[in-house]
Amino acid sequence: LQGQTPQVQRRREGGTLYMLCPYAAWTTKQQTKYWCLLRHGDCQEVLRTYYEDSVQSRDRRIEIKDNTASKAVSVTMTDLKAEDSDTYFCSAYNRVTGAYTQLRAISLNVFRAHILGVLQGLSSTQPRSQATSLCSGNTFLILSVVLLLLLLLALLTSAALGVRYYRLLLRTGNREAEDTSDRPEGTARAGSTGRREGSQDDSKGPAYINLDVQSHPSPEDPLYCNVKLSQAPRNPQEMEYAVIAFNQPPRTSRE
Questions:
Q1: Where does the Ig-like domain lie (predicted)?
Q2: pLDDT per residue over 195-225, tens digit each?
Q3: Helices (H), the chain
Q4: Rounded Cα gap, residues 188 and 192, in angstroms
Q5: Total domain count for the chain?
Q6: Using CA atoms in the order 225, 226, 231, 235, what is the torsion angle rounded to 10 degrees?
Q7: Would 209 be classed as within a structural domain?
Q8: Is 125 inside a domain boundary?
Q9: CA within 20 to 30 Å of 50's CA: 22, 85, 204, 235, which one?
Q10: What is the pLDDT of residues 61-86, one digit of tens each?
Q11: What is the three-class DSSP state of 171?
Q12: Do residues 50 and 57 lie in contact, with contact meaning Cβ atoms separated by under 8 Å?
């Protein structure tokens, strides 16, 4: 038996299989044609036909016909059942060689409806997997772009907040410096002790104090005052003393 690779045919239970088997180059009209089950590399006859005969099985579910005009054998199987699943082939019997020659072979798989749906899904696994892979790639690209944009937005927001906080610190420092520089120095009256209001660091330069003398003092009477450093400890050794003398104003010629 000259073998061929069977073609896979899937059918639903209750469905129909129709197959056309063209003659081979050496096939003649006078040869008997067979519909066979493949058993151990040989033909297990199901039906046979000869020269335009149309033959049916006992249950009338299988029919074979030799179409000599079109040089092809047609086979029809109806009301398929799960137990019909098997490997079939059309063949012509060569009386000279005493052998069967395959015209066409199939592997028939008959399934119930829900099983067929599963197998049909499996048959399209490769295209669907390719589409799924492409879809996954596009989704990953979109998510990457979105995450990158969110990261850039977060960085820009952080930078803006940092600049705003830095400017606020600068403004606060400038206001404190202006408040310190605008403070007036203390004023002391005659006969009282005046306290200097100035920089907190007295070691950076001399300190000054303004005295408000309400009456004109006598030049012979010196005015004493002491000044305590604002930031110095309360220690007599840290006190500064001064003697203020008033010069007599010059007399005019009229006096």
A1: 13-107
A2: 444 444 445 555 555 555 555 556 566 665 5
A3: 113-123, 125-181
A4: 6
A5: 1
A6: -160
A7: no
A8: no
A9: 85
A10: 999 999 989 999 999 999 999 999 99
A11: helix
A12: no
